[in-house]
Specification:
about 0% strand
C-alpha cells in the first residue's frame, strides 16, 4: 500500500496538480478501497477538526506582519541603515544582506518574502558599488533561507500545528541555530573575500557618512527591533501565546506603517489581498495533509513502517540520514510548507516511534529544508 501511495503522490506532483489536491486525493482514493470506514464518510469531521484550531490564526497574522513591513517601506529603511553601519567591513553590503535578512526574517517568518524584499532593495548595489554578482546574489539566497528558521517561522508554526508540538518550544529551539546560521554566512563571506579580494570593493567605498547620520539611521529601525523583542519576548516569557503574539505583532506593524506617510489605503488593500492568498494556500495544504494523515492512521502504514525499520535492525541515526537526504532532494523542487506537510504524516510517527524529540526533529527538518530551498 505504501508503494501505491508513493506512486500516486509522485504522479500527481509530476502532473502539476496543486499540492493540496495531491495530498487529499490519495487518501480518499486508497481509503475507499482498503478501509472498512471510507474517508469520504468522515471527511467533514476531519476537515472541521483541523480547521478550528485556535493556533491557526497565527499563520495569517504573522504573514500580515511581514507584508505590512514590506509595503510600508520599512524594509528599505532597515537595509540602508545596516549597509551604512557595516560598511567598514570587507564586503560590507553583503554582510548587510545577511543582517537585513535576519532582522526581516524575525518579523515576517517567510523565506520567500525575506529574499524578495531584501533582494529588491539590494540588487542595484551590485552595479553601483562593483560587487561580484554571483557571490552577491548568493548572499541574498542564503540570507533568505533564514526566514523559515528564525522565529516567528511560518514553517515551524505549521509543523507545530500539524504535529501538536508546543509552538513556543519550537520557536525557542530555532533561535540559536538561526543566529549560528547568520554567523556562519558572515564567516563564509569574509573567507571568500580573504581569498579573492577583487570580488568586492574596498571597505567603506561609496558609503561615507558621519557618525551622526549613521546614528539617525539606526534610530529609525529600532521600532522593528522593539516589535520583534515584544513578540518573541512575550512568547518566551509565557506572557502571550503564539496566537496572541502574532496579533500583537501585526497590530504593532500596522501602527508603525501608519506613522509613515507613504502607507496608503491602496497599500493596506494589497497587504490584505496578498496575506489572504498565501494563507488560503497554506490552509488548503493543511486540510489536504489532514486527509492524507487520516488515511495513514486508518491504514496503519506508518505503524507498519516503524515496525519494519525496528525489526530490520536499522540504526535510528541511519533513518535520520535517509530522511535528511529525502528532504534535501525534494526541497529542490517543492515549496517548504508543501514539502513538510507532504512528508510529515508519514515520517513524524516513525520519528516519534524511534524515540526522537519532536522539537529537535522540527528544527532539523527546517534546516535541511533550507538546504533544499537554497538550490
Amino acid at each position: 500500500m505504501l508503494a501505491w501511495t508513493t506512486i500516486i503522490l509522485l504522479g500527481l506532483l509530476a502532473l502539476s496538480v496543486p499540492v493540496a489536491a495531491t495530498l487529499g486525493r490519495p487518501g480518499l482514493i486508497l481509503d475507499s478501497i482498503y478501509s472498512l470506514m471510507p474517508l469520504h464518510l468522515a471527511l467533514g469531521e476531519v476537515v472541521w477538526q483541523n480547521s478550528v484550531e485556535y493556533v491557526l490564526v497565527a499563520i495569517p497574522l504573522f504573514i500580515m506582519l511581514g507584508e505590512i513591513l514590506l509595503r510600508a517601506g520599512i524594509a528599505e529603511r532597515m537595509y540602508n541603515a545596516m549597509m551604512q553601519w557595516l560598511s567598514w567591513l570587507p564586503g560590507g553590503t553583503m554582510h548587510s544582506n545577511i543582517g537585513s535578512c535576519a532582522i526581516f526574517a524575525a518579523s515576517s517568518g517567510s523565506s520567500v518574502a525575506t529574499a524578495a524584499t531584501v533582494g529588491t532593495v539590494a540588487y542595484p548595489e551590485i552595479a553601483r558599488r562593483g560587487y561580484n554578482e554571483p557571490l552577491f546574489l548568493g548572499t541574498l539566497a542564503a540570507g533568505g533561507t533564514l526566514g523559515i528558521l528564525i522565529p516567528p517561522s511560518i514553517l515551524l508554526l505549521t509543523y507545530g500545528v500539524f504535529t501538536q508540538t508546543h509552538i513556543g518550544k519550537l520557536f525557542a529551539a530555532g533561535l540559536v541555530p538561526g543566529l549560528v546560521g547568520v554567523a556562519g554566512y558572515i564567516i563564509a563571506i569574509r573567507w571568500s573575500l580573504w581569498r579573492r579580494p577583487e570580488l568586492a570593493p574596498p571597505p567603506g567605498a561609496g558609503t561615507e557618512e558621519s557618525a551622526r547620520v549613521k546614528a539617525g539611521r539606526l534610530l529609525r529601525i529600532w521600532p522593528v527591533l522593539a516589535l520583534f523583542g515584544l513578540v518573541m519576548g512575550g512568547i518566551y516569557g509565557g506572557v502571550m501565546t503564539s496566537t496572541e503574539a502574532s496579533g500583537v505583532g501585526a497590530f504593532g506593524a500596522f501602527i508603525l506603517a501608519l506613522s509613515r506617510r507613504g502607507f496608503s489605503l491602496r497599500a493596506l488593500y494589497a497587504v490584505l489581498i496578498d496575506s489572504g492568498r498565501l494563507s488560503a494556500v497554506i490552509f488548503a495544504i493543511i486540510l489536504g495533509a489532514a486527509c492524507y494523515a487520516e488515511f495513514l492512521n486508518q491504514s496503519g502504514i506508518h505503524r507498519a513502517l516503524t515496525a519494519t525499520i525496528t525489526g530490520a535492525g536499522i540504526p535510528p541515526y541511519a533513518v535520520i540520514l535517509m530522511i535528511i537526504g529525502i528532504y534535501i532532494l525534494l526541497g529542490c523542487v517543492l515549496d517548504s510548507v508543501a514539502l513538510v506537510l507532504l512528508t510529515i504524516p508519514l515520517f513524524f510517527p516513525v520519528i516519534v516511534g524511534l524515540g526522537y524529540d519532536p522539537v529537535w526533529f522540527g528544527v532539523l527538518l527546517v534546516i535541511v529544508t533550507e538546504l533544499g530551498l537554497i538550490t
